[in-house]
Amino acid sequence: MRKFLFFFILLMYNFSIHAYTIDIQVAPNVQSQPIVNYALDDVKNLLLQSGVGEVIFNAEKSSDVTIVLPHFNVEKSVLASDNYAVITVADRSYHWEGRIEGSSYVLNLQAHSYEGISAALYGLLQEVLDFNFYHPRASVIPDLTIWPLQNHFSYSSRPRFNKMGFHLHTQHPIELTEALLDENYPDGEQRIREYIDWLARNRQNYMEFCLLESINRKTWPAYAQKWVTYMKDRGVVPGLDLSLHMKQQYAFKLYRNLPRSFQSKDKQIKERISALTQADWKVFNMEFSETEFSSGDVHKKSLLRADIQKLLAEKDIYLFGREHVVKKDNMVGAQNREIELENDSDKDRGTMIHTVMFYTLNDTLAPVYGNKNLLHMREQLLSSRQHRETWYYPESAYWVTFDNSIPLFLTPYLNARLEDILYCDSLNIEGHLTFSSGWEWSYWLIDWSIANWSWESTINGQKVIPYPEQYFDKIQKSNSVRTFFKQVNQLQNQSLKVDNLIKYLTATTVTDEMPLGLNLPFQPIPEKSYSYMRNKASKDEIDSIHTHALSALQQFVDRYNSLKLTLITEDIKNPIFKEILNSLDITTLRVQHRIATMNYLLSYRKSKLAKDKSLINKDYLLQAKSIRLQAIKIVRERERVYKYSAQELASQRESHTSYQFGYLFPVHNLHFWEREEGQAAKNKWKFWYKNIWDIWRIIGIVEK
User: Fold this and answer.
1) Angle at the Cα of 288 from the Cα atoms of 287 and 292, rounded to 5 degrees
2) What is the pLDDT of residues 54-110, one digit of tens each?
3) Which candidate, 129, 122, 97, 160, places its Cα nearest to that of 456?
4) In angstroms, rounded to a whole number, what is the distance separating the alpha carbons of residues 345 and 310?
5) How far is residue 633 from each of residues 284, 507, 560, 639, 667, measured CA to CA in Å?
6) What are the chain's domains?
7) Of 243, 177, 235, the residue nearest 206 (C-alpha)
8) What are 54's strand-pairing partners?
9) What pLDDT score does 495 carry?
10) Residue 341 CB: number of other CB atoms within 10 A?
11) Cβ proximity of 664 and 643 under 8 Å
């Protein structure tokens, strides 16, 4: 024991008086593999940034720290199913052992593939050495001027899913939309490579995005091939989201009907697949209906799907479809829908089981898309996994008037995504794909947490137990800040999700305000509309809204402000926490704004019932405006430090999407807040009032 203490003290003393050297021992045939080579170069640069004196490869003399990578000639793959086709990927599980040997600290890696070596290197950095790769354009680099590991260290990790990654929803004008769709976009390829690096650093092995009709089909595939090659070299499977003939939001179509094309469907499909496959895609995730709300002719779709599968199989591309949250019986045309029978070819098609917003597969309340909950999606997941490759496909944000377009930072996403990850892991679900809708307003925390929860780790014999605030805690060291965030998360989960106060915070969208029974409830909304509150509510209904809704909303505000008092000035100086605090503050201001506008609506209705105009309290509208202006100050503060240009993200501009502005344009002047003040004051409730959506472009009647 004394001998060990002597060597350990000597080792720490050596580290404290000189910049130490890390030697990475790697066989030439392993180092020459692109996946390993890129990871090693990146890890070397990261370690040098952390204060390590020198990182060398295959040193001939002893170094202070030696990292020994495995040598193998044949990679190990995960087991394929005997019942249906799956995308084969390498076994990425790994195990580290560390100990003092003489005057050096030696880390030995056991891994079974080049992808496993890459994952192990980044896992060591992020899970053990306290690097934080939280955003594609921002990382936290620790101070490693003194080597932190001690004797007999062990660390193992396994992926919970064989395939895991992100769907960037580029039908919306998010951070990477223009870069992915436009070969002439300034620094576009570099921006994409930053994101691919983020995926690799967070041990993800799949990425896809929405392809749109607005690409240049002649020149775009060659551009895509540049970064598709880089994806594969970083161990990331490249996928495309496209459609058979979807009308919505400029989705890329494999064929177009008359009069937009005079070619046959078969010819169009072959030509378009041929053009796209100039790049080396592995997955086509395809929408087979005209909209996500319609079923179409199931028999014709099945025949076309079989033909497309044959074309893609020749190019080693795997076909996926997706199941939407709209129940099949509620889809347009469902009354004539044939029963879709499984057949042999269908077993070779994967399925994505999609859920929306911050709801889980097991929540009993999820009032979205006309559903009471999403238990029917759970049943589809359980059924589908029996006969085809099945991935779970949830969201980390929902741009259109639910969260980051308002903006709201909804921490229940953390609880929901973790709960579903653990549930799907228990079912041995093959893949996990997160539908991502932008990273500002702290939504990077959701994506980053999901990426890391997708791995199960054991450190020094103790299994790491995941919890919702885990990666907030990892990046914030202050105990008071950690306690504050945990309590705010508990508050949001109970008040906004369980008690369903979220229905008052979402902004009304076009479908909420459509006439003649066309108003479809895609997101949580109040039982009585705001128009009803102003013009039709009875005295009892007014009293009920005050007692139940407004009282509960005010309790949320009071509780949040009470929790915020526990913070000290020193806490708020941290720029990462400042962003999260700004995001939580503006969420609470949104609650206050809704209280003010609802109070005005109810005072107006009281005056009508009493036939006394003096009961109209216009001070509520002044309060609403004052709250909005206070919130805009926070918006301006955030815009100065957006990771991508605020001019790009928050202004009106040309776009490859059907939206001619950046995804944070509605946030810039808090459009929905101001619109609600105008609706309350002027009694304007039609969807075209202060409308920013080009409806005809979004639904596909008008194209560029």
Assistant:
1) 65
2) 999 999 888 999 999 999 888 898 877 778 888 999 999 999 999 999 889 999 999
3) 160
4) 9
5) 43, 20, 19, 10, 12
6) 2-159 (3.30.379.10), 163-454 (3.20.20.80), 481-698 (no CATH)
7) 235
8) 21
9) 98
10) 8
11) no
Contact 267, 309 (CB under 8 A): no
Query: What radius of gyration do the chain's Cα atoms show?
Result: 27
Give the separation between CA 498 and CA 479, rounded to whole angstroms: 27
Using CA atoms, how far residue 582 sits from 8, 277, 559, 575, in Å, is: 45, 44, 17, 10
Q: Considering Cα of 673, then 674, then 676, then 677, what sign does the dihedral take?
A: positive
The pLDDT assigned to 259 comes to: 60
The C-alpha atoms of residue 324 and residue 347 are separated, in whole angstroms, by 19
Q: DSSP per residue over 593-608, as a string?
A: HHHHHHHHHHHHHHHH
Each residue of 83-103: b (16+ CB within 10 Å) or e? ebbbbebbbbbbbbebebeee
**Who's near 661: CB < 8 A, 6+ residues apart?**
173, 651, 652, 653, 655, 692
Q: How far apart are CA 573 and CA 123, in angstroms?
A: 29
Cβ contact 639:650 at 8 Å = yes
What would the DSSP string read from start to end of 545-586?
IIIIIIHHHHHHHHHHHHHHTT--HHHHT-HHHHHHHHHHHH
Half-sphere exposure of 404 (CA within 13 A, CB side): 29
3-state class (DSSP) for residue 91? coil
Q: What is the dihedral of CA 12, 14, 20, 26, to 10 degrees?
A: -70
Question: In the chain, pLDDT over 70 holds for what percent of residues?
Answer: 92
φ, ψ dihedrals at 433, nearest 5°: -125, 120
Prior bond of 259 cis (ω within 30°): yes
Closest CA to 432 of 160, 112, 140, 103: 160
Residue 381 in tokens: 């997941």
Omega before residue 238 within 30° of 0, cis: no
Question: 511 with 502: CB under 8 angstroms?
Answer: no
- What CA–CA distance (Å, rounded) separates 45 from 387? 45
pLDDT, tens only, 112-160: 999 999 999 999 999 999 999 999 999 999 999 999 997 899 999 999 9
Q: What is the DSSP string of 420-470?
A: HHHHHHHTT-SEEEEEE---TTTTHHHHHHHHHHTEEEEETTEE----TTH
**Beta partners for residue 432, in sequence order:** 164, 392
* Residues 147, 139: Cα–Cα separation, whole Å: 20
Element (H, E) at 354: strand 350-354
Q: If you search the block for the tokens 């204060």, which residue do you land on?
A: 51
- Total Cβ atoms within 10 A of residue 9: 10
Handedness of CA 416, 422, 428, 431 (dihedral sign): positive
Provide CB contacts within 8 A for 176, sequence distance 6+: 168, 170, 191, 192, 195, 209
95: β partners: 110, 156
Cα 657 to Cα 35, 162, 176, 249, distances in angstroms: 33, 32, 12, 7
